[in-house]
Amino acid sequence: MERFEALLTSAGSELLDRLASGAGGGAGTGGAGAAVGPRQALRLGTRLRAEYPTDLVVEALGQHELRAAAGSKFSRAMEMFFTRAGLEQASPQVVAEHTASRYAAGDIVADLCCGIGGDMLALARQHQVIAVDADPLHLRVARANADVLGVGGNVTTVLSDVRDVGLAGADAVFVDPARRAGQRRLRTGDSEPPLSWCLELAGRVAKVGIKAAPGLPREAVPAGWELEFIAVGRDLKEAVAWSPALATTGTRATLLPGGHTLTSTPAGRGACRRDVHQGAYGVETPVPVRAPGEYLLDPNPAVTRAGLVAELARELGAWKIDGRIAFLSADTPIRTPFGRSLRVIDSAPWNQKQLPARLRALDVGSVDIRRRGLAGDVDELRKRLKLSGTRRATLVMTRVDNRPWGLLCLADE
Ligand SMILES: C[S@@+](CC[C@H](N)C(=O)[O-])C[C@H]1O[C@@H](n2cnc3c(N)ncnc32)[C@H](O)[C@@H]1O
User: Fold this and answer.
1) What's this model's pTM, rounded to 2 decimal places?
2) The THUMP-like domain covers which part of the protein (predicted)?
3) Residue ranges of the chain with pLDDT lower than 50?
4) 108 SS3 class
5) What is the pLDDT of residues 88-118, one digit of tens each?
6) Is the torsion defined by CA of 256, 260, 265, 271 positive or negative?
7) CB of 237 closer than 6 A to ligand 1?
8) Which among 22, 92, 97, 394 would be 20 to 30 A from 239, CA to CA?
9) How far apart are CA 242 and CA 226, in angstroms?
10) What DSSP string describes 109-178?
11) Whether the Cβ atoms of residue 122 and residue 103 lie closer than 8 Å to each other
12) 112 neighbors 173 (Cβ within 8 angstroms)
């Protein structure tokens, strides 16, 4: 804690500012925001130690490295503070801003397990926040981040085990339980505090959001709760369970940035909406299963995890290529943010022997291999293809009518 506090002194901020501006050690320091490599760090450290206490230099170099790494999560990372574990566990800003938007204006939100403040900072832009964490350093870092980003006036920090805090002053709760204990990752599905404790919060405060790993099964959440799967691009980031007072649907897939949302009906039975603000499109007609057509759609992992592939098919007028496989197909180009559309060049029963010749004939030099429903060693296959052409293609290993099937596709531009 003392070492962190030193960073907040005038010498500490001066040193961090010098590192951020690339002026820490003169030429060759990597420029603003760049991570300093081990050799550079050594040279730089030696130079800075002549001007600042050694401990401060070590701490500042470590903090600078964390700031540079945090650039992928936070737009103002170079002004913020982190611990390594706190950064790893922090919600990316784009996700935190989205989840914060689920709370109503004026709500006082208790952010339980606030860590270094990824969620708290987004909440505090719109709400008064009671931020609780049992780790004094995380809480101190969260406070420093709130002050640096100008939302400190909206934040009250509380150093406590979340089990021991009263929630009388809160209108709503967001809880992001730890999925690691110290350096050790907890088993999949385990968290501290556990999910069961988090779910019980809804008995004390009606509006509750619980952040969880994206692998959380639907059955883990009681009826009446919404389970939202959030992806940034095609990267499935997290699941959030929303208590009945905040839920508007059964399951939801949200794509960020952009906020495209695909939902099941409130009863979770099948109709879908492209956007929560637009009317329902679908009806509960069964999704046809047919052989692949001219276009293939690989749904976003958030859609697949949310169990909304059939809803997406209905919305797009597409069909499934196999009852159990999450690829959709159509004979016209598929325009949707909810999946990656590919133009099918070849569609045939899986035949690995013919592939190298076919790829050579098509001048394909690199393939993105997607395997779904078909076993096989992708790296081994890639080696055997011996590619040498100039074009990029996608090779899909899958099943059609429960038979091993191969599709050769190009990006649908
Ligand atoms: C996943 S991190 C929170 C990340 C945070 N939402 C963010 O975006 O930066 C979990 C946090 O829970 C805290 N924690 C774990 N068990 C706790 C408990 N029983 N009471 C209070 N805090 C706890 C850890 O110290 C850690 O900072």
Assistant:
1) 0.89
2) 339-409
3) 26-33, 267-283
4) strand
5) 999 999 999 999 999 999 999 999 999 999 9
6) negative
7) no
8) 394
9) 5
10) EEEES-TTSHHHHHHHTTSEEEEEES-HHHHHHHHHHHHHTT-GGGEEEEES-GGG---TT-SEEEE--B
11) no
12) yes
351 CB-contact burial (10 Å; exposed 0-12 / middle 13-18 / buried 19+): exposed
Under 8 Å between Cβ of 308 and 272: yes
Dihedrals phi, psi of 170, to nearest 5 degrees: -105, 140
Consecutive H or E run containing 240: strand 235-242
CB 342 within 8 A of CB 295: yes
* Cα–Cα distance for residue pair 393/409, rounded to 1 Å: 6
133: CA distance to ligand 1 center in Å? 6
| Alpha-carbon distances, residue 193 vs 107, 184, 227, 228 (angstroms) | 24, 15, 19, 20
In the block, tokens 């099937």 appear at: 405
Please spell the DSSP secondary structure of 367-403, one letter per residue.
Answer: EEEEESS----HHHHHHHH---SSEEEEEEEEEETTE
For CA atoms 308, 314, 320, 324, give the dihedral sign. Answer: positive
Helices in 218-363 by DSSP H: which ranges? 301-305, 309-316, 355-361
Q: Are 292 and 302 in contact (CB under 8 A)?
A: no
- Tell how far the Cα of 140 is from the centroid of ligand 1, in angstroms: 13
Q: Two tokens at 253?
A: 């897939």
Most ligand 1 atoms within 8 A of CB, residue of 133, 157, 179, 230 to mutate: 133
What is the 273 CA–ligand 1 centroid distance (Å)?
34
Q: Residue 77: count other Cβ atoms within 10 Å of its Cβ.
A: 20
First-residue to last-residue Cα distance in the chain: 53
178 lines ligand 1 (CB under 6 A): yes
Residue 190, Cβ neighbours under 10 Å: how many? 15
Name the region of 372 (left: φ>0; alpha: ψ -120 to 50; beta: rest). Answer: beta
The closest of 258, 314, 208, 251 to 98, measured between CA atoms, is 258
Angstrom distances, CA of residue 116 to CA of 20, 29, 113, 133, 281: 20, 27, 9, 9, 41
Q: In the 8-state DSSP scheme, what is residue 238? A: E
One-letter amino acid identity for 304? T
